Amino acid sequence: MFHEYVSQDNIECEFLSILNKFKADVFDGTLSVTPDTDRELPADVPSYDYLTSEKHLRSVQETPHKSDFGDPIGKLDVITFAVSNWSSATADAYNPYSDRYHKEMASYLAEKKGRASIVISGSFLYHPICTMPWHTNESTYGDHAYLTYVDKSKKSYFRYYDNETKEVITSYDEPGWQIRYFNAPKTEPYFWHCTYTECPRISIGFRILYNL
Ligand SMILES: [Fe+2]
Q1: What is the pTM assigned to this prediction?
Q2: Ligand 1 mean position, distance from CA 14 (Å)
């Protein structure tokens, strides 16, 4: 498994109906997804999408790194992570759904991917405009599944570096839920990937641990 995209039409599971209530709270109701206009980019970063550009990937890949994100952008995760991480209000809204949803998702993934432990690995509410810069997930290596929701077509994406073809591939989001699977090795060549959005974007991550 390297990278796999599953559109909403091909997700046949009850957990979507559970999550749609949560999604409605985020997109239509009580939780704010307005842009944070007070943020400022550092002088050496021309734009948010520069952080997901091929040019920036090259510079990060060429520099020895100590963390998943690489040293050149270490200072940037303050402005990217901080605003994209779920606020406590979002987390509180999600909690009533999470137990049942997690159980459903675990059995869905086990059916698709085999017997495994399913662990929630990172949930984000991305505000427009927001990015998760190039990184490797080497510290949480292994198989991952990301469930993503947006309400706009091609205004957000998951982007990765294909180690076989040596190409940067952009996988755009489409309205509704979608799942992406990928494997992140612990060592080189790693699985370099990033995300960018110009619209509100819910992203719920899981690790698939084959430890049973
Ligand atoms: Fe990641």
Answers
A1: 0.88
A2: 26
Q: What number of residues does the chain have?
A: 212
End-to-end CA separation in angstroms for the chain: 19
Is residue 98 a part of any domain in this protein?
Answer: yes
Q: Give the Å distance between the CA of 173 and the centre of ligand 1.
A: 16
Residue at 142: amino acid letter: G
Q: Identify whether the C-beta of residue 168 lies closer than 8 Å to the C-beta of residue 117.
A: no
User: Is residue 67 in a domain?
Assistant: no
Distances (CA, A) of 34 to 124, 158, 198: 15, 21, 11
pLDDT digits (tens, 9 = 90+) for 32-62: 666 555 667 777 778 888 889 999 899 888 8
Retrieve residue 197's tokens: 């959005």
Question: What is the total count of domains within the chain?
Answer: 1
Domain harbouring 29, CATH code:
2.60.120
| Domain of 23, in residue numbers | 2-33+78-209
